[in-house]
Amino acid sequence: xxxxxxxxxxxxxxxxxxxxxxxxxxxxxxxxxxxxxxxxxxxxxxxxxxxxxxxxxxxxxxxxxxxxxxxxxxxxxxxxxxxxxxxxxxxxxxxxxxxxxxxxxxxxxxxxxxxxxxxxxxxxxxxxxxxxxxxxxxxxxxxxxxxxxxxxxxxxxxxxxxxxxxxxxxxxxxxxxx
Length: 178
Known about the structure:
By secondary structure, the protein is mainly alpha-helical. Helix content is 75%, strand content 3%. The chain is built from four helices and two strands. It has helices at residues 5-40, 42-73, 84-114, 134-168, and strands spanning 119-121, 124-126. It has a two-stranded antiparallel ribbon. Strand 1 and strand 2 (124-126) form a beta hairpin. Helix 1 runs antiparallel to helix 2, helix 2 crosses helix 3 and helix 3 (84-114) runs antiparallel to helix 4 (134-168). The longest helix is centred in the N-terminal third of the chain and has 36 residues, at 5-40.
């Protein structure tokens, strides 16, 4: 048994966007705004920020859809069944992935608004939600960055588990999402 086509499309689409957003976020974190301007110029830096924010908004809304679809359709059983430990580890890892995939864009959105910067979605500006507050913005950006590193670690664990099931256990766990 496999996940529905909608669930698989959401999984792989979100995964691709998250990898891109994490890569761009790492670039932003390493260079900082002025470092990006010095390296790539103002217009490219503006595009980097705009599309990083756009990807975050897409991830947030796609995760809302993904959660609703998951609640409606559930998940397929493991065939053959996995161990009790693996089932608990899987639930914990997936739960943390979902939490991070919701919190990270929320922290980014709130931090951007509190920083007094535009919350961009392509060429539209979304409401910043919070009033300008530099200290709060810094805190929210720090939470955004920490969540990104936690998310990256969970992704590595998630991929490692899928590869273990495919090449060591030789079971059908990965095929449920293909």
